[in-house]
Specification:
0% helix; 4-stranded antiparallel β-sheet; mainly beta
Length: 115
């Protein structure tokens, strides 16, 4: 059974950093593209970053110079390093994986950034 679980969320002040983690199980970690998305109040669920099976990465323009995605295949963990956080980054962050033509989501982790 494919599963994802996020961790590392919390409450920080603007300008601070957080690192989120997503642990996957039930599939060959590293074989599939994986993503970070976020659910932002009033803006719906939006793409944040992706990492491909060849470790190619891409992030949304709004976070490209502040966030970095990475993956540790041995630990079956994908990470999202977030620097220079702003209140606009507040939301629920989700891990997503597309495995064998099915899409799976984790339950999410809350990130709150205050002024």
């Amino acid at each position: 059974q494919v599963q994802f679980v996020e961790s590392g969320g919390g409450s920080v002040q603007a300008g601070e950093s957080l690192t989120l983690s997503c642990t996957g199980s039930g599939f060959r970690f590293g074989w599939y593209i994986m993503y970070w998305y976020r659910q932002v109040p009033g803006r719906g669920r939006e793409f944040v970053c992706e990492i491909t099976s060849l470790d190619g990465t891409r992030c949304a323009d709004s976070v490209n110079d502040r966030f970095a995605i990475s993956r540790d295949i041995e630990k079956k963990t994908m990470s999202l390093r977030m620097d220079k956080l702003t209140p606009n980054d507040t939301g629920i962050y989700y891990c997503r994986g597309d495995v064998d033509m099915r899409t799976y989501w984790g339950p999410g982790t809350q990130v709150t950034v205050s002024e």
